[in-house]
Design a protein that fits this description.
Layout lengths: L8 E4 L5 E6 L5 E8 L13 H8 L11 H8 L3 E6 L4 E8 L3 H13 L7 H20 L6 H9 L14 H6 L2 H11 L5 E7 L3 H12 L23 E9 L5 E8 L7 H12 L5 H9 L5 E7 L6 E8 L6 H13 L6 H19 L2 H15 L8 H6 L3 H11 L4 E9 L4
Parallel strand pairs: 2-6, 7-11
Antiparallel strand pairs: 1-2, 3-5, 3-6, 4-5, 8-10, 8-11, 9-10
Helix pairs in contact: 1-4, 3-8, 9-12, 10-11
């Protein structure tokens, strides 16, 4: 497999808006992707959940777009759209037929530059209720739903920007005033804190003129304030931290997490390949050993979080059967993670190949390609880095995997959350 060759053209408006253009005439669709440099890490105490609240508020209309009209206009032309909030960013995106690119650009510019005039108490109250209902559905009333809240509280100290969940405190959301929300918008949803990527079937010079027309007159905004609290943490937890939960869950589950280098660190590629080696596919170590051979787990999951501030996380979990003791699950997970110290060349090459395949399949989708270009521009000031991702993964060696296992994946850097069904006792 050769190095990626995704075209990248960069521009910047006078107001600071960063622009990435990536032309691909293969199919007549175009993706518009807007990343703002604001996520849950930017929320000070008392204002948690504001970035996620804005994910909802930004679809409630702007000066020239009535409430919910954004959805209607995009879907009417056969497009699709959505938004997501994360620790380090918020993104808004549409994919439309090529000839409707101007519509998508106009809609994004209107809510960036002219949202405040349309914001009112009724919309705030309505979306506040929507967020609270989302919290009830996805966290409070979902089996294992509070795992992320519990894990973040263990992995990051109270003063760290990642200590609280993306959805935030419902008390903070309840206390939010219209002035609070307007101030948050003026601080973060500005051109100088945003990246706009257009990918797909378009003509670059004409598209750049459209962007200048619709975004050029929006005020740049003031510099974004520094992160609240103390964003620095040690490389390891310094021991094993535990949280045991007896709850109305169907099966026992053990979640195990480790602090890792942040996404910005060169060694993050080692974490990604280790994650694939542990849990990607049915030939992975955890699936083969815990599910197929030892039959102590019904399923296994691995994640790696691409977080930018001080430390990220590698996460594994195993869900047992009704008769499985949680201690057995935890011991089995720990044994397989320790066994990474014996990783050989062939299984590391397999894990790299799986990670490469996952990336290439992702890039086949225009919307995903646009999203990654926005990410690399916002995080690294280098969207062309996307074309070097395969090199970064291929450089990982068995020795680096073993070193990660020895220095970051031991009992001195482990958080364990155990879920035990109430019905067991």
């Amino acid at each position: 497999m050769s190095r990626l060759a995704i075209p990248v053209e960069r521009h910047r408006l006078d107001n600071g808006l960063r622009i990435v253009l990536s032309q691909d005439r293969t199919v007549p669709v175009v993706a518009v992707n807007l990343w703002y440099g604001v996520g849950s890490r930017n929320e000070p105490p008392g204002k948690t959940g504001f970035a996620h609240l804005f994910e909802h508020m930004m679809f409630q209309g702007s000066a020239h777009v009535p409430k919910n009209k954004h959805f209607e206009l995009i879907e009417r032309v056969g497009g699709n759209l959505n938004a997501t909030t994360w620790f380090d960013r918020t993104n808004y995106f549409e994919t439309v037929p090529s000839h409707d690119l101007e519509l998508a650009l106009w809609l994004e510019s209107d809510r960036m530059g002219w949202m405040l005039p349309a914001m009112d108490q009724e919309k705030l109250d309505n979306q506040r209720d929507v967020v609270k209902n989302e919290k009830r559905q996805n966290y409070d009333n979902q089996p294992y739903g509070d795992w992320s809240e519990r894990l973040q509280a263990i992995m990051y100290p109270e003063a760290h920007p990642y200590h609280h969940t993306v959805i935030g405190s419902m008390g903070d959301i309840d206390a939010a005033t219209l002035d609070d929300v307007a101030s948050f918008f003026r601080t973060y949803y500005v051109p100088s804190n945003a990246v706009l990527t257009v990918a797909g079937d378009f003509e670059p010079s004409a598209t750049l003129e459209l962007i200048r027309r619709y975004f050029g007159e929006i005020a740049a905004g003031d510099p974004v304030p520094p992160l609240p609290g103390n964003p620095e943490v040690s490389a390891t937890l310094g021991g094993t931290a535990r949280d045991h939960v007896r709850a109305d869950v169907p099966l026992p589950r053990v979640i195990m997490a480790f602090r890792t280098p942040p996404y910005s660190a060169p060694s993050f590629a080692v974490v990604e390949v280790s994650r694939a080696l542990l849990g990607m596919g049915r030939a992975s170590r955890l699936y083969r050993r815990l599910v197929r051979e030892r039959r102590v787990a019904k399923s296994v999951v691995t994640y790696v979080y691409p977080l930018m501030t001080s430390a990220s996380m590698l996460l594994v979990w195993a869900t047992g059967f009704e008769s499985t003791e949680p201690e057995v699950l935890e011991r089995a997970l720990a044994e397989e993670i320790r066994a990474l110290a014996e990783a050989d060349e062939s299984e590391v090459r397999r894990a790299i190949a799986l990670t490469e395949t996952d990336l290439v399949l992702t890039l086949e989708r225009t919307a995903e390609r646009a999203d990654l270009l926005s990410m690399f521009e916002l995080y690294f000031d280098d969207p062309g880095r996307l074309n070097r991702e395969l090199d970064r993964l291929r450089a990982v060696t068995p020795e680096q995997i073993r070193e990660l296992a020895a220095t970051r994946l031991g009992a001195d850097n482990r958080a364990v959350i155990t879920y035990e069904p109430l019905a067991r006792r």
